[in-house]
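Consider the tokenized backbone below.
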């Protein structure tokens, strides 16, 4: 049975429901699955728990779901650049569970590897650790963190083959590999779909983790913050 679908909406058919947990790859606007996020928005599902490093920026990426009032809870590293996200958090309309960035990545990796929980020193003695089990190892205190298994994982890849083997490009790799492993159903949009196979030495996410695959709509890649300097100064530093 082919994993490849002709359109993002077809790839997501039957995968969405109210109250589900969705893990989403990307960091800000880098490596986010634009097409798949738009399908979630257009579906109108509500009371979602979103697991992602952050919620993008206002009006773009996961910010679309906040604008549409589809999100009940977010598990993320920071509120960051999204003013609406910050406002909904402060207003109490969206619940936020903060997780240190490395801890969040490991929670998804653990979930994908079948590890229900692990211990880390990160967050001990801070609000992040409140209410969680603690244990002492070699004279040091650690806090228990639970692995994350999402109902649905949405991923953006640069290159894929028809078996779902994935390669990511540069910074757009970010959280996508761990998101790809932690979903009960994983849907991927890819910029390039090969007729042959990805070189096994280049595979980052094996196709066994991928359930559905679609070619991403070509679009301009958004830059969250553009930093520039006078052209005369470019390349003059030692």
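A designed sequence for it:
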């Amino acid at each position: 049975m082919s994993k490849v679908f002709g359109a993002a909406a077809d790839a997501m058919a039957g995968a969405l429901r109210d109250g589900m947990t969705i893990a989403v790859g990307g960091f800000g606007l880098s490596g986010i699955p634009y097409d798949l996020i738009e399908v979630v928005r257009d579906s109108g599902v509500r009371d979602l728990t979103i697991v992602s490093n952050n919620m993008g920026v206002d009006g773009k990426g996961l910010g679309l779901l906040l604008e549409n009032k589809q999100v009940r809870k977010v598990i993320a590293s920071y509120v960051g650049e999204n003013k609406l996200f910050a406002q909904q958090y402060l207003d109490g309309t969206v619940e936020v569970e903060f997780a240190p960035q490395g801890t969040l990545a490991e929670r998804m990796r653990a979930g994908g590897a079948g590890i229900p929980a692990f211990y880390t020193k990160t967050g001990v003695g801070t609000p992040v650790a409140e209410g969680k089990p603690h244990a002492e190892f070699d004279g040091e205190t650690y806090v228990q963190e639970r692995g994350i298994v999402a109902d649905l994982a949405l991923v953006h890849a640069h290159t894929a083959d028809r078996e779902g083997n994935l390669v990511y490009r540069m910074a757009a790799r970010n959280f996508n590999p761990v998101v790809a492993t932690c979903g009960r159903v994983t849907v991927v949009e890819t910029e390039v779909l090969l007729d042959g196979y990805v070189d096994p030495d280049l595979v980052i996410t094996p196709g066994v983790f991928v359930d559905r695959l679609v070619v991403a709509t070509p679009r301009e890649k958004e830059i969250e913050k553009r930093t520039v300097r006078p052209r005369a100064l470019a390349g003059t530093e030692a």
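The CA atoms of residues 39 and 238 lie 48 Å apart.
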